[in-house]
Amino acid sequence: MYTEQVDKTRLPHHIAIIMDGNGRWAKKQGKERTFGHHAGAQTAQDVVKAAGKLGIDYVTLYTFSTENWNRPAAEVQALMSLLMENLVDKLFMEYDARFRVIGDRSRLSPEIQDAILKLEESTKNNTKTCMVMALSYSSKWELTKATQDIAREVKAGTLRPEDITEETIAQHLDTHGIPDPELMIRTGGEERISNFLLWQCAYSEFYFTKTYWPDFNEEELCKAICEYQQRQRRFGKTGEQVEEAK
Ligand code: IPE
Ligand code: IPE
Ligand code: MG
Which CATH number applies to 9-138+180-229? Predict the structure, then answer.
């Protein structure tokens, strides 16, 4: 069991997950894609609970991308209804988890925007895992917005171009204050980033699994963490340097 093999002293602080494969999981059983999204929402809850149990500080779930707005209207509508159903604080209180959203909220309905604000507020003093939901999110959108904000500050004279550092950029992203993910998981068999956390993933370890998201679980999460713990993170140095510094 991978759940027993995880080294609790070397956990990643932040795990980002591209939850993919809901549609194919449903189709495989002759069901509508939406059926897969419902099952996937349950998996998301289970995984946040498992991450909390392990003591992971942040779990970012790619829930709806900027590009997903281009799906058939009925599917977008179904995903939005499902989202609304899940924006309740009961589970977060049960798991003592915080909630935070990254992405372009302005494209979401006023009801959803309101529910997000309420949930962020009511969970802000919780102490376990922070569940970061990427909603109407894409990395290129986030970086474009950050660039506009920085340009405005330069124009207003409150920031000098030569004072712009990597930290300045990080602070202008929706993820400000959140450590970069050490581990990035993608379920569903595709091996691509799909416009997710491009800046923040600069040095993440990637873990791909063919498992469709609704079939992902605590054991699979621990398997990914175990594999992450086997990797040597060199950050440009040599393997010998990394070993010596231990
Ligand atoms: C991921 O599952 C959920 C969302 C992108 C909203 P998909 O809906 O992409 O499932 P597949 O990739 O079609 O199987
Ligand atoms: C990525 O999945 C977005 C989310 C998981 C929310 P997609 O299924 O939309 O990704 P692509 O389009 O196949 O790359
Ligand atoms: Mg997909």
Answer: 3.40.1180.10
